[in-house]
Design a protein that fits this description.
4-stranded antiparallel β-sheet
Length: 240
Amino acid sequence: MSNISSLRLLDYFQLHSLKTKPKQQYLANRPYTDGYNQQDAGFSLIELVVVMLLVGILSAIAAPGWLAFVNRQQVNKANDAVFAALQQAQREAKNKKLSYSVSFQKNTTTQNVEVAIYRTDAAIATWTWKSLGADVGVSSDKFLLGANLSGENAANSTTNSPVSYPPPSTPTKITFDYMGTLPNASFGTVTAPSTEPPGLKIVVAVPSSTNSTSASSIKRCVIVKTLLGSMLTAKDDKCS
């Protein structure tokens, strides 16, 4: 009886050994596998340096384009504010049957481009100056103010009535009479091949990267074209 029990016990241990051997082999090999994976985790110093160099190069390429995009968006908003100010002055003149003026200036202290809308007969001390486009988030100190006016409602007499920065007439003034028209306006000389005079131009421009007092190619303007006070907007070379 004891011999039979011993044989059964021996068979049991042999069977158990066969079942557990693959597991023991797996466990024996596991530390090596885990160590291999751990060594391959993460990035090497060379890889990190390469990635940083690529990010720097891409940033250097993208930054000028992004800055130009932001400048265009800002100058577009500033020009919309110029257009709105001229329209408001014209509307006030019509509604109140009085002469109204709108003036623009570059504040020499804050460097902001400013606008004032007022009755033409009001004293200068009563004019209320506001930063151009401040209500729509425009930083007007970053722009130049230009115009081709030599006086109230008068474009300069030079060929093509070129725009000056700052305007030769400060503050730059456009006046609408009680009907919303421009009394005694001079829109400049017609120069071939154009068949129309240049009109009265109010310009906002991004400064040149090499000279902060000169305008870059990014310009926006409002042009008053007729005695009836019709206006249009233009950009870049059309604002010269």
